[in-house]
Amino acid sequence: MQRQRLNLIQQYLQQMVLGQPNLVEGLLIALIADGHLLVEGPPGLAKTRAVKALADCIDGDFHRIQFTPDLLPADLTGTDIFRQETGSFEFQPGPLFHNLILADEINRAPAKVQSALLEAMAEGQITVGKRSYTLPKLFLVMATQNPIENEGTYPLPEAQLDRFLLHLSLDYPDAETELEILALSRNEAQQGNLATPQPLNEQELFAIRDEALRLYMAPQMEQYIVALVMATRQPKRYDETLADWIQWGVSPRASIALERCARARAWLHGRDYVAPEDVQAVAPNVLRHRILLSYQAEAEGIDKDQVINRILKLVAIP
């Protein structure tokens, strides 16, 4: 029953966001694996639209935050307000106390704001003054950023990037899909948006997460995940060219993310076990933002996806 509900949501997202199957699957994997999501791509690729469409399918509080250079940490966390009638301070919660957060153009906010968001993503809490406040159990940050415009932006530090479960990289659709987008835009202008499926409530979503965690993963699959991670830290064991490309490997969070995302993908595809194809499918989105390339790789025009594809070819499949 729950799988059917999620299949309907997946179909709805595919109709709302044409030509981006990787984005739709990534959104659902992040939801099932209980992790935060960073979506990067040029303007106009329906990044914000996709996140808002997913939020419409979840029975939870949704809030969109437009990140700008003048944003303050208190604009996210909330602040203590002095009540004259009582002579005391009262905490006024900020937008981070919603269940689903859309951090639009996250790289336009300064470091102090990014640091406040980092605590919320990492610890599930925020600190104001001397007190800490626990965030809702269902808490998911879905951030977007534009890689084209660098003026007035603040690149996310590696520590914060590592807090994101997945990093989805989008590209422009092909000509056939572009025609479908034109037709969809006309239909929405004339008839309105598509009917939203019945939203999942928190209990249903938590039950789906529990099912995904209980999927069978063979010891060989765990060893495969560790081997992929070790290939980023000890690339010389596999290939001299790979060693020249990688300056810094991924953290243990990558191993955890690979396992959780592979389980979520296997559950989405209706299996009760994790297959090598599940790990390989999620590996680019899990490792992309965690690998640090060398100057030589950048000088040669090598991108992170090429490095990850080489790792997947070099590490033996169980």
Automatic annotation (TrEMBL):
Q: Which residues form the ATPase AAA-3 domain?
A: 36-166
| GO function terms (MF aspect) | ATP binding; ATP hydrolysis activity
Q: Does the keyword Glycoprotein apply?
A: no
User: What's one Pfam family the UniProt record gives for this protein?
Assistant: AAA_3
The chain positions of domain ChlI/MoxR AAA lid read 246-311
Q: Which Gene3D superfamilies match?
A: Magnesium chelatase subunit I, C-Terminal domain, P-loop containing nucleotide triphosphate hydrolases
Q: Which keywords accompany this UniProt record?
A: ATP-binding, Nucleotide-binding
Q: Which PANTHER family match?
A: MAGNESIUM-CHELATASE SUBUNIT CHLD, MOXR FAMILY PROTEIN
User: In which family does this protein belong, per the annotation?
Assistant: Belongs to the MoxR family.
Q: What is this protein called?
A: MoxR-like ATPase
Species the sequence originates in: Ferrimonas marina
